[in-house]
Amino acid sequence: MARIVMKFGGTSVADLDRIRNVATRVQREVAAGHEVAVVVSAMAGTTNQLVAWCQGLSPMFDAREYDTVVATGEQVTAGLLAIALQNLGLEARSWMGWQIAVDTDGQHGKARINDIEGEELITRMQAGQIPVVAGFQGIGPDNRITTLGRGGSDTSAVALAAALKADRCDIYTDVDGVYTTDPRIVAKARKLDKITYEEMLELASVGAKVLQTRSVELAMKEKVRVQVLSSFVEAPGTLVVDEDEIVEQEIVAGIAYSRDEAKVTVRRVPDKPGIAAAIFVPLAEAGINVDMIVQNVSADGTTDMTFTVGKTDLVQALASLDGVKNAIGYAEISTDKDVAKISVVGVGMRSHAGVAGTMFKTLAEKGINILVISTSEIKVSVLIAAEYTELAVRALHTAYGLDA
Ligand code: ASP
Ligand code: MG
User: What's the gap in Å between 134 CA and the centre of ligand 1?
Assistant: First the structure.
């Protein structure tokens, strides 16, 4: 017998038939003798509608009232699922964030969970009651409803699993697991049985958007075993677990790509102490995330500085650079939005040499030019022209022996 948190995303509760299907899934786990708590998202499309309503009245809306509005989507599905479970003869009740309580900080619209009171739910689960918890929401220090940011019900589920000391947190979604790469562009992509938290985090941060990044961070910190699986097919999904739970570790777990970044080159900046700080500190202060950075060697006392920022931050980044132009002194700035970042991720890189070499050789054989390179302990990323994205991902998938 295990204690399981089951989380269902928006497409899994999109209409009454699907809610009935979810209830059947929950019933099955209960019948198998498990203690179950459920976390639900809003019905697919609902949160978008609620956000649009707020924006329709005022683009400068009060974030506390925004939270009051957008948190309602999850209230509806929690109540409906409790009814569906009761129809199956199960004892179930809905819980809003404030009733549990899910205590968050006061950053309305993107609050973080501080603490979840789990004792009452545990007692009730032991007595056979199924808590159906509204994801995405909590209560702030001002005693008002907060929400956790888009996609936040994944984080609700993981946090609840930690608070309830659950054996597993099953995240039911519309894909059946985590793949070695995007199956839409590589037909030979394979579903992974297991992946480490760190790999999942790296893949999530470079474009594989299966789980909210924050939920993976939390799972890693609290050591919550997470399973990603589909509510539409009957098959085990992918387990996201600690490294030592994976016996036969592949060197490379997966390959991700992102077309969300733009390349910026600042040409002919003076090559002297303080220049990088003069460029990047103002960017950071403007809340702009810089990802890859290269500085060229200098011959004539000046150097070129190339880096990437999110495409949506590009205009702001250029404004920031313009603001420091007199202080730094540079010749010109060029930008390129037609780029893609390709990342190879795997904890096996820590103990195996040659992963980066294989990547560069594979791309060279396809005649693909590398614009920028960056590495971390378990990741190698390159920036290339966007038109070669598919070609690069497919070639690398084969090169690392990941093809099904
Ligand atoms: N319903 C919220 C959203 O769409 C939370 C979630 O689904 O995770 O962002
Ligand atoms: Mg989601």
Answer: 10
Distance 151 CA to ligand 2 centre (A): 4
pLDDT of residue 100: 98
In a domain, 135, yes or no: yes
Tokens of 3: 């204690």
Q: What is the pTM of this model?
A: 0.87
Rounded to the nearest angstrom, the distance between the alpha carbon of 10 and the centre of ligand 2 is 7
What dihedral do alpha carbons 276, 279, 284, 290 form, nearest 10°? -70
Kindly give the distance from the C-alpha atom of residue 168 to the centroid of ligand 1, in angstroms, as a whole number. 21
* Domain extent for 19: 3-174
Ligand whose nearest atom lies closest to the CA of 148: 1
- Residues with C-beta less than 6 Å from any ligand 1 atom: 9-10, 41-42, 47, 73, 135-136, 150-154
Question: Which residue positions in the chain have pLDDT lower than 70?
Answer: 205-208
Nearest ligand, CA of residue 147?
A: 1
Q: Which one, of 372, 384, 380, lies nearest residue 354 by Cα?
A: 380
Q: Is residue 359, in this structure, part of any structural domain at all?
A: no
Phi, psi of 316 (to 5 degrees): -65, -40
Count the domains in the chain.
1
- 85 lies in some domain: yes
- In 9-72, the DSSP E strands lie at 35-40
Residue 183 lies in a domain: no
CATH of the domain at 120: 3.40.1160.10
CA-nearest residue, atom 8 of ligand 1: 151
